[in-house]
Design a protein that fits this description.
This protein is α+β, with helices and mostly antiparallel strands. The chain is 22% helix and 52% strand.
């Protein structure tokens, strides 16, 4: 980014002529600021690349950050304000929830064989997909379309009909679009999970999943002849704990469940 300094070094010649002119240009890049996070550096690279072409309010944004000077903390805060990470988090949370809900649903003794073995084992896989369509209206012109697919699988053990322990791996792929804008999400995860069933109809469930997620969005602003893109890539930790109480009334199961 962007403060350009120029200096002219010259040597006098005979009369009014010049023997030598040296022009020096120095460009300070925002992306060279030390200690930037990945998101801050991505924003800085975007501003650096558009310097010299920016006009209107976009030029004012770059110019205002330039005027902050050498106060690194203030410049970093400005770069954070321009980052769209809240949108990445809001969109990717549905993919994280899908993986968590698939695993928690596995923590039932009914999935295991009905025999007298002290240790029962399962290998399982779950492929899922969903299509969503929001029709356009006055508040949201253009149909919003979203397609999500994924796979979650694992291996688990039921011991003495009292507790379950398992390991799992999975992936998710999500694509959303509206008008000329689109969002793509890809993620992979690996983790472990377990549950314990008490004699008094209480049960607990826990899981821990680590994942790697990638998010990319593209917006086309036609009247400005501008195309913007946001890319986020990072790691996630997905944890959950449940405590439930089961009450059986004849053939009816009533369950009180608390989730964290």
């Amino acid at each position: 980014m962007t403060r350009v300094h120029s200096a002219v070094d010259c040597c006098g010649g005979e009369g009014s002529s010049w023997k030598e002119v040296n022009l020096m240009l120095q460009v300070d890049q925002l992306s060279n600021i030390g200690g930037l996070s990945n998101n801050e550096r991505s924003v800085a690279f975007a501003l650096d690349s558009d310097y010299g072409y920016a006009t209107g309010d976009f030029f004012s944004i770059i110019d205002d950050i330039d005027k902050i000077g050498d106060i690194i903390a203030a410049r970093k805060e400005a770069l954070n304000n321009l980052s769209g990470y809240i949108y990445a988090n809001a969109i990717t949370v549905s993919a994280l929830n899908a993986a968590r809900n698939n695993i928690l649903s596995r923590l039932e003794r009914s999935y295991f064989s009905n025999d007298d073995a002290l240790i029962k084992r399962n290998i399982w896989g779950h492929w899922y997909s969903a299509n969503d369509l929001y029709k356009d209206d006055n508040n949201s012109p253009g149909d919003f379309k979203s397609y999500q697919k994924g796979f979650q699988g694992g291996f688990d053990i039921l011991k003495e009909d009292a507790h379950i322990f398992g390991i799992t791996v999975g992936s998710v792929d999500s694509n959303s679009s509206q008008n000329d804008d689109k969002v793509d999400i890809n993620g992979y995860n690996v983790g472990c999970y377990g549950s314990y069933f008490f004699d008094n109809n209480l049960e607990t469930r826990v899981l821990f999943i680590g994942g790697r997620d990638k998010y990319a969005s593209t917006r086309n602003i036609k009247y400005l002849n501008r195309k913007t893109r946001a890319d986020f890539e990072g790691y996630s930790v997905n944890t959950a704990a449940e405590l439930a109480y089961n009450y059986y009334y004849s053939y009816i199961l009533l369950q009180c469940r608390s989730k964290f």
